[in-house]
Specification:
Two copies of one chain form a homodimer.
Chain A (H helix, E strand, L loop, with lengths): L2 E6 L4 H17 L2 E6 L3 H6 L6 H4 L1 H18 L14 H9 L6 H13 L8 H10 L4 H8 L2 H16 L7 E4 L2 E4 L4 H9 L3 H5 L4
Parallel strand pairs in A: 1-2
Antiparallel strand pairs in A: 1-3, 3-4
Helix pairs in contact in A: 1-4, 1-6, 1-10, 5-8, 5-9, 7-8
Pfam families (chains A, B): DSBA (PF01323)
Protein name (chains A, B): 2-hydroxychromene-2-carboxylate isomerase
Keywords (chains A, B): Isomerase
Chain lengths: 207, 207
């Protein structure tokens, strides 16, 4: 079974669109989804940006909120412009990293995204994250304790460094093997690429 | 008949994709295309950029050329990565401004884009521009002379200032009335918006 890697930041609004669409699209195409939470902030910093370009560039920022409204209508997704943007996704990302391979991971990621972009909730709030985990029957106490360990913090730093090493400069980013697709607008293209490419080819470097 | 405004820069690679697709899509949807050449450079300068972000951000730049290759394959368009990027589009934009309402305008715009992005030709070269005009039976001498007048230079500066005043921060940009759509990826959305909106509504401010 072919894999689509989905690299995302819980603070990224266009990652929200992909998070809510990818499981169904991948299932229809017979692909396995690998969820890859990472932190976009350190990458923006290496580009010389202290925040999201949607904050730093006013005109683009204004456009993006209107675009999100239209895109959510198109995809029949709920939408509420976050009153804080971008929200601190550190705890959510560490928790998601703890969930690799766990049955609750996909549901957790979707609910955190909905909290941020549909319900305007503070996803940096530990009680909110715990409530989502418990709602999924995942037992929040042990997971959040593990998420706060130095090992988990180091793992998230390593994940973000891996993102940079693979050439990731924004989110969402999809990989089929080494083939990289940027943005929710390329999700369908990435899936089409995977389903028209043999497993061997998708794993090799293309240029 | 509803109108879709298509704001573009001849040096913009994603504008190339839209230029080669918009006439057919608009015709099928019963829309009139208004071609709006402008200069993206002055807008980038106000954002503090001395060149295209695809040049200034290496990782994004590398991605963009691979993306263009895939997008052109998807749309069955010819593609050759320009050996100079972004090319100086000043003369071509001035000529296009002279062509407003002329029967040769759409063909001229497509051929300049093909020269830049399919044949790797220097679109700042007056002989190339003249050849395209003459090939369309447009009589290059008078048009190029008009394009070099102070009046035409001022008109292009005014056009680019209008772009900025309307909130344009990149290209291609589409308008249905005041509703703005950014990027070739939104061309279909813009057309759908026009065809599901009454003429009155499209002309009013939406937010």
């Amino acid at each position: 079974m072919q894999t689509i890697e989905f690299w995302f930041d819980f603070g990224s609004n266009y990652s929200y669109l992909s998070m809510m669409r990818i499981q169904r699209l991948a299932q229809e195409a017979g692909l396995r989804v690998e969820l890859k939470p990472f932190m976009l902030g350190p990458i923006f910093k290496t580009l010389g940006w202290e925040s999201s370009p949607f904050v730093l560039q006013t005109m683009k920022g204004n456009y993006v909120w209107r675009d999100m409204q239209r895109q959510c209508a198109k995809y029949a997704l709920r939408w509420q412009r976050p009153s804080v943007f971008p929200r601190n996704a550190l705890l959510a990302a560490r928790v998601a990293l703890q969930g690799e391979g766990a049955p609750w991971l996909a549901g957790f990621c979707e609910r955190v995204m909905l909290a941020n972009f549909a319900d305007d909730r503070e996803i940096g709030d530990e009680a909110l994250i715990a409530g989502i985990l418990d709602g999924l029957g995942a037992g929040s106490a042990a997971i959040i304790a593990a998420a706060k360990t130095d090992a988990c913090k180091a793992a998230l730093r390593a994940r973000s460094a891996e993102a940079q090493a693979r050439g990731i400069f924004g989110a969402p980013m999809f990989f089929i093997g080494d083939e990289m697709f940027w943005g929710n607008d390329r999700l369908e293209d990435a899936i089409a690429y995977a389903t028209t490419t043999t497993g061997d080819k998708a794993g090799s470097v293309t240029s």
